[in-house]
Amino acid sequence: MDTMYYQSQTLVDVAYKALKKDITEKVLLPGQKVIIRELHERYGISETPIKQALNRLITEGLVESIPRRGVKVRELKWEDIEELFDIRLMIEMNYVKQILQNFKKDLGIQQKFTANLREHMEIVENAVDLNDYFRNYYLDQEFHQLFVKSSGCKRIMQIYNHLGTHDYAYHIYRRQTREETIAGVKEHEAIYNALVSQDEAELRRCVEVHIINAKNKINKNLAKGQPL
């Protein structure tokens, strides 16, 4: 492990990022039981920060704790993903009018959208390693959080953040082409342009197209009948 890279981070942060890396690169496979003692030996980190990092990943939905069976890497199945994306579409479409109104009068949220899009396109066009992939994942999630946050409804934001529709991203690393990833960011740009033009019909169309395309890309990259 590169100790220089982790000097400014806590041991929990180190364990958290190491676990995410191992899940993404299939060192830890979907459905595999997580043995804390083995992680301690692998990472050279004591068990307490590893347990804390696992708790963070449980909250994010990447791993799950099963009573009397321990902790394992979460298996994501197509039926679960499809259901979650349908709920996400319902939420985003339901608040379109409020989102348009609040976006128009909130300069701060407009600036956050543009900053997100600018960095996201730069990342996907020039990505070279796993850290860039993680950043791509974060920016994709941030865009949709900004969109729903623009509704002004705090409770729906809490519900949205717990859907877990971005958890799949760690399981399709290297299965999606760069062109597909760039196309996804361009769909974000189309959503933003509809917000700027205050075109409700176009915004609804762009949101629906984006979520349907995301579902289709996941389905294509998912082996038939197998978990991610």
UniProtKB/TrEMBL annotation:
<dbReference type="InterPro" id="IPR000524">
    <property type="entry name" value="Tscrpt_reg_HTH_GntR"/>
</dbReference>
<keyword id="KW-0238">DNA-binding</keyword>
<keyword id="KW-0804">Transcription</keyword>
<dbReference type="GO" id="GO:0003677">
    <property type="term" value="F:DNA binding"/>
</dbReference>
<dbReference type="Pfam" id="PF00392">
    <property type="entry name" value="GntR"/>
</dbReference>
<dbReference type="InterPro" id="IPR036390">
    <property type="entry name" value="WH_DNA-bd_sf"/>
</dbReference>
<dbReference type="Pfam" id="PF07729">
    <property type="entry name" value="FCD"/>
</dbReference>
<keyword id="KW-0805">Transcription regulation</keyword>
<dbReference type="InterPro" id="IPR036388">
    <property type="entry name" value="WH-like_DNA-bd_sf"/>
</dbReference>
<feature type="domain" description="HTH gntR-type">
    <location>
        <begin position="9"/>
        <end position="76"/>
    </location>
</feature>
<dbReference type="InterPro" id="IPR011711">
    <property type="entry name" value="GntR_C"/>
</dbReference>
<protein>
    <submittedName>
        <fullName>GntR family transcriptional regulator</fullName>
    </submittedName>
</protein>
<dbReference type="InterPro" id="IPR008920">
    <property type="entry name" value="TF_FadR/GntR_C"/>
</dbReference>
<dbReference type="GO" id="GO:0003700">
    <property type="term" value="F:DNA-binding transcription factor activity"/>
</dbReference>
